[in-house]
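wait is this the right file?? whatever heres the structure
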């Protein structure tokens, strides 16, 4: 059997109808801090970000992981017509990248409250999944969330991801709570159906 070549993951800008995913940089820190310091954004994630300095540290750590080949982080930037064009509204990334296994995770996603009821999250997921399966040739994309985060679990399931299991007492959050983590995945053979679901959700 011919060996399967590893994925080739590199910084890229992903453009959608109303959203642009730009390679994350320190230039995004001020924009992220302007919309991303509200406690509600960090309730369900291990890391607490409450000051501009902590946001800078968050971005620096993401860039360190990118340098190591472990992640590829993005800033979510509005790109449709209107006065908000160019507004930074959140962040997401590919993480836990395994080039040999053609596997990665989509996560570390947050969207500022003013845009949480818009198409931003769905469009971001669509851009990331499309790039993962159709450009990178991923075999598997993983997603995970806090067991207690019913909203996130429902959103992941709604796009057609399969819940695989619960990692009990998996992560100690900054606030000291020990969280259980729910793991989901989408594999390459499922992508056409998931893509069709995402198209419906964005309509």
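ok assuming it is, sequence goes like this
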């Amino acid at each position: 059997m011919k060996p399967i070549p590893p994925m080739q993951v590199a910084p890229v800008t992903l453009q959608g109808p109303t959203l642009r995913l730009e390679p994350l940089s320190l230039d995004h820190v001020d924009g992220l801090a302007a919309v991303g310091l509200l406690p509600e954004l960090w309730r369900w994630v291990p890391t607490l970000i409450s000051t501009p300095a902590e946001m800078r540290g968050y971005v620096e750590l993401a860039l360190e992981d990118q340098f190591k080949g472990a992640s590829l982080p993005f800033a979510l930037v509005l790109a449709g017509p209107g006065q908000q064009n160019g507004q930074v509204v959140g962040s997401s990334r590919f993480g836990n990248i395994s080039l040999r296994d053609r596997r990665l995770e989509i996560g570390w996603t947050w969207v500022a409250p003013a845009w949480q009821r818009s198409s931003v999250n769905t469009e971001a997921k669509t851009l990331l999944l499309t790039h993962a399966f159709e450009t990178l040739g991923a075999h598997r994309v993983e997603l995970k969330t806090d067991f207690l985060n019913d909203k996130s679990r429902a959103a992941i399931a709604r796009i057609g991801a399969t819940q695989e299991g619960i990692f009990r007492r998996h992560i100690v959050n900054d606030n000291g709570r020990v969280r259980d983590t729910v793991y989901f995945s989408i594999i390459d053979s499922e992508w056409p159906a998931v893509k069709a679901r995402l198209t419906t959700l964005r309509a």
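The beta strands are 14-15, 19-23, 72-78, 88-98, 103-111, 140-146, 162-172, 178-187. so i think its the right one actually
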